[in-house]
Amino acid sequence: MLESLRSALLFALVLAAPVSAASAAERVVDRTLPMRFDLRQQGPAETCGAHCALWIAASGAITADSGRDFKQFLQIPAVQKALARNAAEQAATVVLESDGGSVLGAIALGREIRKAGLPTTVGHVIDLEDDGGVAAAPAAKTTDDRIARATLSPRADCESMCAFVVLGGVHRSVPRQARVMVHQIWLGDRRDDPTAATYSAEDLVLVQRDIGRLAQFTAEMGGSPELLDLALRIPPWEPLHAMTRAEIRDTQLATRDDDSASTTASVAPQTLPPPAQAATDGARTTPISERRWAVVERAGGSATLARRHPLTAEGDDIGSFDLVLACGAGPDSFDLSYIEHRHATGGTPLVARVADVSLRAGRSEVALKVASSARHDKSDELVSFATGVVPAAMLRAFADAGSHSMVVVTHGIDPHGTGDKPGLTTVIRLGNTGTQKNLPRLVASCATPLGDRAEAATSPGTGGSAGGILVAR
Fold this sequence. Notes:
Largest sheet: 9 strands, antiparallel
CATH topology of the largest domain: 2-enoyl-CoA Hydratase, Chain A, domain 1
Number of strands: 21
Number of domains: 2
Strand order of the largest sheet: 12-13-14-15-18-17-16-19-20
């Protein structure tokens, strides 16, 4: 993930990435560990003969030390000898596969790659076995100049700051089956629940300084400012943006088109479980916190637990939504209301209606029933209501100590299509700030005998008993 200088300092506490790998048989890609570098030669030899490509596999998290580690790797005598021997044929290619990491580390690594005059690509290096059935030893550990043989798969992900490392290549290619994904720089220790966190002036200075450094680096490497602009449009609560072929070309991330694969990698659509039956169908007005999950007291002592969050699509602000938890039919479940206010923007048209809403926390997923989705009072605002039943175990796991997230997915209907033609999909991740303290309060309220609870108010226009609350505007 993209991280600021503070996150880079945290990474520096981890053991530095090894500059010489263990044996190829031991080489396992763990993208959570600091980035490591391994020298590999295309194989088997019968497939390429005297023209086998040389690759530097770069996989793992980008740390503050990655630039230094790469420089030291290139200084290993066996690596220097192999690079020099191969230079007459073609330069070794740095093959990147990473979830991202430190901003400053990525810039340093990209500059070292450019200084070495090496090309870059995105891919997954797969080690081969030698004739004896064991993996060949890497160049850095041999005395007979043997280099481990491998194949190169284009199916790999280069996320976050990894995209900017690609810019370091003197020539750059992104196979059609590879994915390059980007999003905003954010303080690493506040990514789990960014809208609930607090930020000092110093924090803002650090982020702005890193953005400035990235802009300068992008220009130095011959990339387009549109790459940074594209990344900065994606807020930390949205999924990473997978760059299209046009974006890869237009941002100069790739200097040549790689047609080695005929298809573009794609993410399989989610399969949602059947909609849960709604236990509530109305709402009433009271303010909701935008910073944390908070208890909203109602007359008679009953309570709900609620949270508001921005609704965005590829970084465009298209509205907000509220999640409201209330007592369920029994101790093993809670009633959930989803209330959304959505508007059109210059880049994102308003959907005809919201057709599906689902919520996922951990391994549990709940599909909500959309009770209504229509423009409010003939205005340009689309108001949608959805309800469902959430297992208490799912909420308890979400509220446990530590940072846990909940993902809310909506599917809209294309306003320009006919019937139920799919339109915009939104995916928002929000954290659990406030739940550890306030969920027990809701549980205690729900334990009160039903007759002692306040009767839920009837919401105008819904004609039902309220189990949730409608946002005050």
